[in-house]
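Class, discuss our next protein.
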Amino acid sequence: MGFSPWATQFDAWNSIMFGRSSAGNAATDRGNRLEPAVLDWYSETQRPILARQVEVQGPLPWMGGHLDATTEGRIVEAKTDASGIWPASGTVIEQWPDGDAPIPAYYASQAYWYLEITDFEAVDFAVLTGRLEFRVVTLLRDQAIQSRIRAMIERALPWYSAAEERARTKATERRHAEAIELRIRAEGSIARARDSYHEADERLR
């Protein structure tokens, strides 16, 4: 969708089609290291976490997602906020963007997508700020926005499918080339072995 400051639309396609992730950076590394602690903090002070690192699958093959955690009726996403852009703890966003400091579009779109492909009613963002302040910001289900996001993805699917077909064709061509190379090498080995046999036979005579 083009919202993320860390991944391009090609990165998203690469991840969907081949499970390949773009290289991390200092921000993503920090987030990965702090995520377990942020989720522990949430579980101890808000709602008990029921599962972590949850893979979800919607009704269609391309509808997938990876949730940081789940609790009763909600998704929990752990975030670190070094720039101070998150609203105050306890903020409930009924329709994005709400307030003077709405949550970033790249996080909101991620949350709405997760809500679209699951039965959860809300996403709790468990946020650790740059001042080490713990905040919880809640985003509620909004079917109108979710439908718009789904429509954007559906419009991109033909491009994804064409790119996938090209990738499959190239993979097939590569496998054929490798098979031919192996056969040539094998035939060369057989020829050398045959020549060696004839030379030894001549010497024995």
Remarks:
- Strands lie at 51-57, 64-71, 74-81, 92-93, 122-129, 134-140.
- The mean pLDDT is 78.
